[in-house]
TrEMBL record:
<feature type="binding site">
    <location>
        <begin position="118"/>
        <end position="119"/>
    </location>
    <ligand>
        <name>S-adenosyl-L-methionine</name>
    </ligand>
</feature>
<protein>
    <recommendedName>
        <fullName>Carboxy-S-adenosyl-L-methionine synthase</fullName>
        <ecNumber>2.1.3.-</ecNumber>
    </recommendedName>
</protein>
<dbReference type="InterPro" id="IPR029063">
    <property type="entry name" value="SAM-dependent_MTases_sf"/>
</dbReference>
<feature type="binding site">
    <location>
        <begin position="66"/>
        <end position="68"/>
    </location>
    <ligand>
        <name>S-adenosyl-L-methionine</name>
    </ligand>
</feature>
<dbReference type="GO" id="GO:0016743">
    <property type="term" value="F:carboxyl- or carbamoyltransferase activity"/>
</dbReference>
<dbReference type="InterPro" id="IPR005271">
    <property type="entry name" value="CmoA"/>
</dbReference>
<feature type="domain" description="Methyltransferase">
    <location>
        <begin position="64"/>
        <end position="159"/>
    </location>
</feature>
<dbReference type="InterPro" id="IPR041698">
    <property type="entry name" value="Methyltransf_25"/>
</dbReference>
<comment type="similarity">
    <text>Belongs to the class I-like SAM-binding methyltransferase superfamily. Cx-SAM synthase family.</text>
</comment>
<feature type="binding site">
    <location>
        <position position="133"/>
    </location>
    <ligand>
        <name>S-adenosyl-L-methionine</name>
    </ligand>
</feature>
<comment type="subunit">
    <text>Homodimer.</text>
</comment>
<dbReference type="Pfam" id="PF13649">
    <property type="entry name" value="Methyltransf_25"/>
</dbReference>
<feature type="binding site">
    <location>
        <position position="200"/>
    </location>
    <ligand>
        <name>S-adenosyl-L-methionine</name>
    </ligand>
</feature>
<keyword id="KW-0489">Methyltransferase</keyword>
<keyword id="KW-0808">Transferase</keyword>
<dbReference type="GO" id="GO:0032259">
    <property type="term" value="P:methylation"/>
</dbReference>
<dbReference type="GO" id="GO:0002098">
    <property type="term" value="P:tRNA wobble uridine modification"/>
</dbReference>
Length: 243
């Protein structure tokens, strides 16, 4: 796990809470934030690296779309041969700058091309592996199919998209139970009640989760031929979608 300042961003009683954004303050604490608030985050990152090891081949590219500080990019770098280029994309300059500093210290880091851009506007070419790790959920729902179709069009035969998302449940009792467990996990990881409430308010209408079945149907509709659910921890799910 990368070095990080402690995540204390929401331990302040500032009301109303501003909408969440991936700014310099978030970049400063991001590794600690995802470790403590996303169930199984380290497993999701490792999973992307393992998929890349098995699927990526020289002459193709791996894409980390919504790369933040590049944990997935670094996992791919460690697991792929020299002939594979890795393209890391994020629209937050603070995240891109942080990743660039990190890559300067990593052997072979020059194999990662870092781009500050909207993931919807990046050209996808000869992609054998694409990671969308907790990224799609921050796009407007009406824009999600278009991005997935764009990714699919740029992938080579036999390629794999790894999609990880927070999901929601239709059944009210099920949703309440899983949400309560997620908040219990945050408490166990040291978050205060104020921080939990503040983060929830900041993410409202910024992070819009969908049902797992909606994601699976959309992936098939845009042309992925096989969709495999690889991982679930509470309300976080990861799939492999095959070209």
């Amino acid at each position: 796990m990368q070095h990080s300042d402690p995540d204390d961003l929401f331990d302040r009683a500032e009301m109303p809470v501003a909408p969440f954004e991936f700014n310099a303050d978030v970049a400063r604490v991001f590794p600690d934030m995802v470790r403590r608030s996303v169930p199984g985050y380290a497993d999701l990152v490792a999973l992307c690296g393992l998929v890349a090891r098995r699927v990526a081949r020289p002459g193709t590219r791996c894409y980390d779309l919504g790369c933040s500080l590049g944990a997935v990019s670094l996992a791919m770098l460690a697991r792929t041969p020299p002939g594979v280029e890795i393209v890391a994309v994020d629209n937050a300059q603070a995240m891109v700058d942080g990743l660039a500093r990190r890559l300067a210290e990593v052997p072979g880091g020059e194999r990662v091309r870092v781009c500050c851009a909207d993931v919807r506007e990046v050209e996808i070419v000869d992609a054998s592996v694409v990671a969308l790790n907790l990224t799609l959920q921050f796009l407007p729902p009406e824009a999600r199919a278009g991005l997935l179709a764009h990714i699919r069009a740029g992938m080579v035969p036999g390629g794999v998209l790894v999609l990880a998302e927070k999901v929601r449940f239709d059944d009210a009792a099920e949703a309440a139970f899983v949400t309560a467990l997620h908040e219990d996990l945050k408490r166990a990881n040291g978050y205060s009640e104020l921080a939990i409430a503040g983060k929830r308010a900041a993410l409202e209408r910024v992070l819009v989760p969908e049902r797992a079945e909606v994601h699976e149907q959309r992936l098939r509709k845009v042309g992925f031929v096989r969709v495999t659910r690889l991982y679930q921890h509470l309300n976080f799910v990861a799939w492999a979608a095959w070209t």
